[in-house]
Amino acid sequence: MRFIDAHLHTDMVEDAQLQKLVMMGMEAAVIPSPHMFVGTHDADTVLLLWERFLTMEATTAVTLGYEAFTSISVPFFGVNRADAEKCIERMPEFLASDRVVAMGEIGLDCGTEFEEWLFREHLRMAKEHDLPVILHTPIRLAPQGQRVTPRVFEIIKEEGYPVERCVFDHAGEETMEFRVSTGGMVGLSICWDKMPPEVAAHMVIDHPEWRDRLIINSELGGMGNDYFMVPRVQLAMKLFGLDRQTIDKVCFQTPRDFFSLPLD
Fold it and tell me: pLDDT tens digits for 105-121?
């Protein structure tokens, strides 16, 4: 079964594992900028990361057998405001690439004043360049999730950004109803600290009315180099009795169409 991983940090995954993903059916991936850096970094670090996505990650993908696209943003932890402003000033140069298909990860985690400022700057840039956005929101067990996730939606409305062009990523069970109610897409991140594959499969199976709105991704997969979370969701859906056409729609057609990827 084919799939697109709509949120995969390939720069943190070994080439051998990426090729295994290709053999499991991965035809393309969207590589987002991280929402945080460990430690403190300057503007040059961010610019070098964006350059890596558009050069090494894109060319390596071809040698491994898949298409790599990217989503760029300034991390909202690990970069100070002065350096963030320098990055935003340079961002249009990178947005000109046809490999940039979105802006992200952007959004809020703790809801700090700096996060909100940077989130608004990103939304304005995305609107100006007609790009969809991948939204970072607190993960499923984060205690601030039910407070911060609605604030993400409030800022989107305040900035006049079209919510239907947003993926509310890192969904958890407790915030699913709210995410769906926004009118945006809902990202099910099947990562070691996020949603388990079987839970995601039941989200698709038990809620057919949501299927056009769900985007499944691995972000980084599981502990112990288990990066194969999207195939695990596909397998769970198959074992639970979902038909192949619906699995293909959710795991390939929906992300392809949302990000306007040039894939058959």
Answer: 999 999 999 999 999 99
Reported as a single tens digit per residue, the pLDDT across 42-76 is 999 999 999 999 999 999 999 999 999 999 999 99
Domain 3-258 sits in CATH 3.20.20.300? no
Higher pLDDT among residues 40 and 156, named by residue: 156
CA distances 214 to 27, 35, 59, 112, 219, Å, are 18, 21, 29, 28, 15
Q: Sketch the domain layout of the chain as residue ranges.
A: 3-258
What phi and psi, each to the nearest 5 degrees, are found at residue 104? Answer: 160, 170
Phi, psi of 213 (to 5 degrees): -115, 0
CA distances to 76, 91, 125, 204, 242 from 172, rounded to whole Å, are: 21, 31, 28, 14, 22
Alpha carbons 235 and 131: distance in angstroms, whole number: 32
**Cβ contact 215:259 at 8 Å:** no
- Closest residue by Cα to residue 192 from 252, 232, 236: 232
**pTM, rounded to two decimals:** 0.95
Starting at the edge strand found earlier in the chain, the sheet holding 67-72 runs 3-5, 26-32, 67-72, 100-107, 133-136, 166-168, 185-189, 214-217
pLDDT of 223 above 70: no
